[in-house]
Structure prediction request, 121 residues.
Amino acid sequence: MLSVLPDVVNKRATLVKRGHYVSLRFLVEIGDRGYLVDIDKGRVASVQAGPFVMPSWTFALRASAEDWKRFFEPLPAPGFHDLFALLKARRLKVEGDLHPFMANLRYFKEILAAVREEINT
Prediction:
């Protein structure tokens, strides 16, 4: 599912521009499956599927496979429509250095919403 991230994000100039100051690696855990996402100046450089041995990342977004499945539905139910809705419901854990995540929150919300759009078209 996250394998489409580079194509989806990198073809959207406004999204790349919004993340121009973002260069980092973050982890998305979907249940017991991990994905390392490398961002370089707003462009998704790579998405690597785990398992990993002691991966290095700036921050991690962790939720159950069922919660991510509901997040990526074409029209998610209330509480599953947004990263902060998942966080508020204690379905999402955000760990690590939160400063880059919070400083670029709209960028991270939009790249995951772009995946939702892509897999549901």
